[in-house]
Amino acid sequence: MRHLCRPVRSSLCARLVAGLAAVVASGPAATGRAQAPARGLPVVAAQTDSADAVAFLDTLQTAVARDDRRAVAALVAYPARLWDGRRTQRVRSVGAFLHVYPQVMSNGLRRDVAAATADSLFTNWQGVMFARGRVWFRRTGARSAGPYRVVTINAPVSAPRAAPSRARRPTPAPL
Predict the structure, then answer these.
(1) What are the φ/ψ torsions at residue 147 (nearest 5 degrees)?
(2) CA quadruple 35, 113, 156, 93: dihedral sign
(3) pLDDT band at residue 1, thresholds of 50, 70 and 90?
(4) 9 partner at 20 to 30 Å CA-CA among 24, 72, 90, 108?
(5) What angle do CA 76, 78, 79 make, to 5 degrees?
(6) CA dihedral sign, ordered 113, 118, 123, 128
(7) Rounded to whole angstroms, what are the CA distances from 41 to 36, 119, 123?
(8) CA 106/CA 33 separation, integer angstroms
(9) What is the rounded distance in angstroms from the CA atom of residue 115 to the CA atom of residue 54?
(10) Is the backbone of residue 163 left (phi > 0), alpha (psi -120 to 50) or beta?
(11) DSSP for 91-152?
């Protein structure tokens, strides 16, 4: 244990502890930001400007509330991922998105978009999400410095499918 008490190591340890204390002190509680927004999702420090993410959410909410399909399509990055619970579908153009828009923008998704708030946004290295991951958006372009765009919309994209039947297969006759 004596090797841990050397002056060089102890000063390094003291600097690490002081740095960690400074990071903890400047966390969400010190800034007055919510620690656990709606539905228990943690807030993660955004790598990009959070005001831009909130402005994008406002733009998306306005377009969806007006049912302006072209405006919503303009807010999507192509190819976009649409997941219906079983498989991922890639939408490669504005025309293709407009074609599937009625299935994508279900009443439930419209309600989720309308109910999203700045406090309900969750950010990580993949982007920003709300409504428990139903919609993901992130910065696009070179080095992710471009505008925010929707990149993924998760289930339900299509009409609900019937549950598989639980009928038993006939048992083969013994030989």
Answers:
(1) -75, 160
(2) negative
(3) very low
(4) 24
(5) 130
(6) positive
(7) 6, 10, 10
(8) 32
(9) 13
(10) beta
(11) E-SHHHHHHHHHHHS-HHHHHHHHH--GGG-EEETTEEEETTTTEEEEE-SGGG-S-EEEEE
